[in-house]
User: What shape does this take?
Amino acid sequence: MKIAISGDFVIRSGSVANPMDLVPDASVEAEVLGEFDYRLVNLEGPVLARNTKAKPTAKCGPILRMDDAIWDVLRKMGVDGVTTANNHIGDYGPVGIIDTMNGARKHGIEFFGSGLNFDHAYGLRMIDVGGEKLAILAVNEHDGAILHEREPTPAFLDLGRLAKNITQARFQEIPVLVYYHGGNQHCPLPNPYMRNLFRRLVDLGASAVVATHAHCPQAWEVYRKAPLFYGLGNFCLIGRKDSKHGISFQLKRKLLHILGRGFPPVKELAKKSHEYGLTVVLEFNGGSVTVSKIRFSRFTVDDGLKWIHDDEHLSCVKRIKEINDILIDDKHYGKVWDAWCHILTPQHLSMIQRNLAGGKMIFSKDFRKRISIANRFGCESTRTMILDYLTRKKPPSSDMLDKTVELMGLWNDD
Ligand SMILES: [Fe+2]
Assistant: This one.
């Protein structure tokens, strides 16, 4: 069975007049990707029916919402299934999750990684192509919102439940694809926690692990014959515009950089990487899996979704090779990761410091603020970054910092 998987998909309500114009139809995909049996993308937000009234949930980060015209866009592209385990699916609370699951069913699209409650979200789901089965286990990091076990929810990462599902599928001799939503945004490499986790999932019996969320294409590797794609990048994404806070924060960081204190905002360092995405075709054959194809796409609001060809394709392959080479050299990988933490962590710590100063946080009734701090400790990737930053005895060399800044701009040149 061949399954084609792309990264994050969201076209927020009201962002464009006709979302259908932004994507090519399924025949173009088939031409680029070759033959495949099943098409999977990550649906990075709730799809609410037009007449549904729902309030945004209290969480940190942008709030996303799509309207039900999106189902036709997904059908146009030939999407068979969507992963709904992510940090935005709960942006409009239980109502948004229920609408999304109902809408998917109505339009003949399968969903993975959400449910009416936590047990349901972790139900063992599989696809069947001509009698050949594949379990798709979708989970997301503790990012963005809080888990309410008895309410509609995405499948927040629960290692025990995930291990149980992998074991159960393998006991039935069904191969397992784990879809993971997490990682450090705009970082071209996975963090050490994710890398270790993915390997242990393979040790448990997963045939392949594929991740998204970082909003940039990331490195990939093979471990014990299992492909591990740490970040497919964005596939088709129109999220929310920066909040006032986001803009003021970026301006402040830019000003400090001009004054010689600190690095430019991350969105400036990695300004184009969010336009690119990898689509991988994995071929499952009994217990083994091979990477049948990797193609690149680029999405901009003006030009829509375009597949990359010829010289531009070769340049994308070269970029991925550059980051893959770093990953397979443990020492080099460690140094780049340290430098990444050094560049990015201070903004998280300063946010925590600002809100904890003078006991403000203890008495704060601003739940959103509290969640925002809790998220820094609860989200596996952010926590890893902060802990690694705080526990390093020496700062990275200035040469390594310069090289890491350069690496973040890998996708900036056309
Ligand atoms: Fe995400």
